[in-house]
Amino acid sequence: MMAGFKDLLVVLDTAKSCAARIDVATGLAGRFGAHLTGLYVSPPPQVPAMIESQLTPELVELQMRTLNEATGRVQELFRRRAEVPGLNTEWRAREGEAGEVATLHSRYADVAIVGQADPEAAPLGSTSDLPERIVLGSGRPVLVVPYVGTFKTLGERILVAWNASREATRAVSDALPLLETASKVTVLAINPRGGLRGHGEVPGADIALHFARHGVRAEASSLKSDDVEVGALLLSQAADLDADLIVMGAYGRSRLRELMLGGATREILRTMTVPVFMAH
Q1: 65/163 same-domain check
Q2: Its pTM surpasses 0.90
């Protein structure tokens, strides 16, 4: 049995994209012989203050029935999509705030698989900043699956976004099981810096050598651009390389600063076109 990931968590919701996310999770679990847990977090009943005084048992029952029906639909979807011969799965349904509950459960998995936020939908069982909250709060890597598309392969052609930071180092270390089984790995340094705290004499060469010692054959490349956002350039390179996975560090500077000034993490989470493996 292949070494690597042995305990995966896929965070589920009522979005249309949830089926594709389960397929990615089951494919990954099957490849590594991993246990796969499907987690659905149902929100607690919401009672607007303006009608609290008019709340009747019938309204409470209606809301609870609606929430329970949503849980049942997600459970059935997970059962159908994850019913793969030889795959060891587990269903968990919890009530609470999605970010808090999912972050807690992610701490007990090798990788948390979550969905990219859809700006035009607000599915039950998720929040718009769920990937960010898990990657920042769980201490575990997160595999973010786009809300558009299906993904027949994952990790065959990997693009590593390398900026020689602590976060990027953590990401490539956590992603080693995927890197070791990839057919092609490209290490890309965008606007690399020199010096001891930078990328060295040949940007990407040092980390490519580290990969080689793990049996990973990687090509190192670098790009300089003053007029294109790093996130957009990274996605453009992923398309040119036909990459089916991006590996990158998340939030090299504070989340607040990225919110104010922009940053690669937020840009990727907003506009991603392929799954992204992130770590902080």
Answers
A1: no
A2: yes
Q: What are phi and psi of 191, to 5 degrees?
A: 50, 55
The reply to whether 13 and 141 lie within a common domain is yes
pLDDT digits (tens, 9 = 90+) for 100-154: 999 999 999 999 999 999 999 889 889 999 999 999 999 999 999 999 999 999 9
Alpha-carbon distances, residue 14 vs 37, 77, 105 (angstroms): 17, 10, 19
Residue among 238, 20, 239 nearest 150 (CA)? 20
Angstrom distance (rounded) from CA 237 to CA 268: 13
Which CATH number characterizes residue 179's domain? 3.40.50.620
Q: Are residues 28 and 140 in the same domain?
A: yes
